[in-house]
Write a structure and sequence with these properties.
17 helices; Putative portal protein; three-stranded antiparallel β-sheet; five-stranded antiparallel β-sheet; 609 residues; Portal_protein_SPP1_Gp6-like
Amino acid sequence: MPKKKTYSPSDILSMVKEKQESQAFRDLVEQMETDFDRFTLVPYQPRDEHGVIRKGAQSYTSPKPRNDFLKVLNGLNKAMLVWQIVTEEDAPEDERKAVARGEDFLTGILAEADKRLRLIGEPPLKQSLDWIAVARGMVGLKCLIYTNEDKETEIDIRPLDPMHMAWEQGVNGLVWAAFYYNISKTECEERYGVDLDKEDTALVVDFFDTSINAVVLSTGGGKKQWIKKPTPHNLERPPIFVGFAGSMPTIYTKDNEPTIQHRANSVYSSSRNVYDPYNKQVSFLMDKAEQSVAGTLVHASKGGKKLLKGNPFSSWQVINVATDEDESIGELKPPSAPAEVGAILAILDRDKQESTVPYPIGFGLDEQGHSGAALAIMTDNTRSIYDPFCGLIQEAYRWLCEEILSQFKTKGKKVDLRGYNQKGKFFKLQASPSDIEEDWYINVVVEPQMPRDEEKDLQMALQATQARPPYGTPLLSDQTVREKMLKLTDPDAEKELIKREAVEAMIEKMPQVQIRKMAKAMLDAGDREGAEEFLASMPPPGGPSPQSGGQGGPPMGQPGMPQGQGMPQLSPQELQQAMAMAEQLLRQGKPIPPELEQVLRQAGGQPQI
């Protein structure tokens, strides 16, 4: 086991500064700053061949960088995020219950993290990570769960901007990581009780290595001090995630220099060098258009003494020039753009289309009709824009879920959680570290919601599940169709929902249920006597109806299977569905509804668990 290091405030600041000043990190930060200028639409400034800003020249700034950013960000915000603790298909019911409780625990912790972000005016965690991923091409994430001085579980989960981070990778992950930010004099005194004296701001560095966490305060006057002295976090790893968009691994140049700036594939990774040439050409055209409006006249005469000064196309004017010819007045031909400008703009526009969200398909403005195959190809092209960012968010949340479970198991106390689970149901939960199993396997899916021809998908799904001669077997199973063709996020849950609805529909058709509903409606209307009469007409389980006077013929249904009067005859498939529903309820520890129990009893079926 490596020997624990000791640090001073100067040591930590020096480590961070060394990383900041390395060529790889300088290139990365410069790229991020340039990309942010694209997002904020910093006005384009025309310059001459010496790089000097041309005063009075027309300037055009394309809105496409921001439009592309917002389009990709919106697609990422809408992407379906699902996390689950994976179990074996034949796992016992108590294990499934524990897993369901664990998933609700994760949901509650993440809801608490969102709540804390809202309190400081920040977007929810998922949206914050989405923005950072699209803008920076990478994300940082901190997760720290511990028991505070009041013996309560503290949840510190927050997104980190990689521009203000420094880190060192080792063989088994991060060796150390730090994030830093400026703090005002008032906030410093309120949070840490430190008076900055004459300084207005100070730098705060939050540092983690594999064993300790420390926070350093540094002022412009050179003062360095601990805000939090090195404290063991008992995790054996920094609780910090650093991830990159795309599939590029760590690559070094021929001089053995890292190229992390190229791993940070922001939304502008392919298009960032197209916008300035495009703005330049459009600004040039605007200059020519402006000059052609002036309507300048040339007055040529003998002895004309006026010399040409300035730009003759800047405003309407008369230019006097000397000539040996007869006096004349003529129009100064306005300048025009070279024919090559059109070709240049076409090339730039094509490159923009290939490098960003394709227009008009990506913006839903294409009025042309397309075949299903053409739509699938265009959708796949658009999806390739989203996939790197979806993959990054997916990895970030997988790391986060694993950290939450591991840290709570190690350092947490009982905590009360609530929220809406991934099925949209509200829950309340008191969780304790003993609820967490160390061998749980986390799976996270971030699926972009792409436009689809749903009608055609459904038609193909129906055709694939129809019985085919000569043996009456379908081309594909229902499970495969749900997963591959309909692309359902949770096909297993959909299967169980279909079973439940089928049994509920079967129960709804039973005379007993209809009578009870009618009686309830009569009670609500104040007709108690009528309700009692209705209930009295209900046939007893397994017996004839009162109207038959106990004399009816043989019971309806299959021979040898006693059924009540008016009981609908069950097909083998319906009976199988009812049995499956009952078995599922028993596994979940829930009672079987009386109507379902009566159906099974009279059909001669018994659920097996």
